[in-house]
Design brief:
The protein is 42% helix and 11% strand. It is α/β, with parallel strands linked by helices. The N terminus is likely disordered. It has two domains: 161 residues, Nitrogenase molybdenum iron protein domain (Rossmann fold), CATH 3.40.50.1980; 113 residues, Rossmann fold (3-Layer(aba) Sandwich), CATH 3.40.50.1980. A four-stranded parallel beta sheet has the order 2-1-3-4, with helices on one face. Helix 2 crosses helix 5, helix 3 packs across helix 4 and helix 8 runs parallel beside helix 9. Bound molecules: zinc ion. Zinc ion binds next to loops.
Length: 297
């Protein structure tokens, strides 16, 4: 009898998990939500590290997930222009539409690099609002964490104190890690690299890396054979130390150039979940720095 009573009480106990539903477009923001909300959020992440966040199919499973979301956390700056507006239209959910409390675009909280003077989509420019790959600068992560914790508290005021405490804890760990990463910058300053796409501009700005060439002639346009040949000729007299790309980018152009220049082609983690080591944002920066330090050797 006593056992039955205990079981009954257990069924009545409030569920600690999933106070709010969060839909995140990219793994890096999913990881940040995990840091700031923990078990208070039920999380759906639309892409993996192996999917191009510029292009995604608006699958029914994603529509179902975004329909029940209290908060959408994405990059913005038009990174997801090819699929997020469609998902939002299909969601039938007023709170998460642009301007609503449930619509959080990380790039709104940081200064964008490479803002074009003239926007010309016919030229294939997929970065019309400036470079949207803002997460690879730890200072941006800190600013975005501030804004995101505030937004979580707004959406879920019952747990405002918990979000505040988790933010303070995250930022204290982040500041300690950032100080250690800053100390490793000196060894990497001026490192000359070629990059497939402008995926690492914020990383380069933070570490003072020198990205001497981008394989794509315009963001989102794959390089032609003629363009690669021209790039080879241009880089041959003074080759960069490596060609870098993300896990989701086509490896062929990097491999072609790396073989001819005799330099390594490297896949940097770019976001969380890119391999077993990169389980959170701390590991993302740690692994990125380690890969660059390996190249420098
Ligand atoms: Zn891009």
């Amino acid at each position: 009898m006593r056992t039955v009573a205990v079981m009954f009480l257990a069924l009545l106990a409030p569920l600690p998990a999933g106070a709010i539903n969060v839909f995140s477009c990219e793994p890096e923001w999913g990881s940040l939500v995990r840091e700031l909300a923990g078990e208070l959020a039920e999380l759906t992440i639309a892409t993996t590290a192996f999917q191009d966040p510029h292009r995604l199919e608006a699958k029914p499973s994603l529509i179902a997930a975004i329909r029940k979301a209290d908060l959408v956390v994405c990059t913005g700056a038009d990174l997801e222009i090819g699929w997020l507006p469609l998902l939002l239209r299909r969601a039938g959910n007023a709170a998460i539409q642009s301007g609503g409390p449930g619509h959080f675009m990380a790039a709104d909280y940081v200064r964008k690099l490479e803002t074009p003077k003239i926007i010309d989509r016919s030229q294939g420019d997929i970065h019309p609002q400036g470079n949207p790959h803002v997460h690879l600068d730890p200072r941006n992560i800190r600013r975005i964490a501030d804004a995101l914790a505030q937004r979580l508290a707004e959406i879920d005021p019952m747990n405002a104190a918990a979000y505040g405490a988790r933010l303070a804890d995250f930022q204290s760990r982040w500041d300690t890690a950032s100080a250690e990463w800053e100390g490793r910058k000196t060894g990497l300053v001026g490192l000359r690299l070629a990059s497939h796409h402008r995926s690492f501009s914020y990383l380069a700005a933070w570490l003072d890396l020198n990205i001497v060439a981008t394989l794509e002639s315009k963001p989102g346009i794959p390089p032609s054979g003629a363009q690669l040949a021209a790039l080879l000729e241009q880089l041959s007299p003074n080759p960069p130390v490596a060609v870098i790309r993300t896990p989701y980018e086509n490896e062929k152009p990097s491999s072609w150039l790396s073989a001819r220049l005799g330099i390594p082609a490297i896949t940097l983690p770019y976001t969380t979940g890119s391999d077993q080591m990169v389980t959170d944002l701390f590991a993302l920066f740690e692994e990125t720095l380690r890969s660059l330090e390996d190249v420098r050797q």
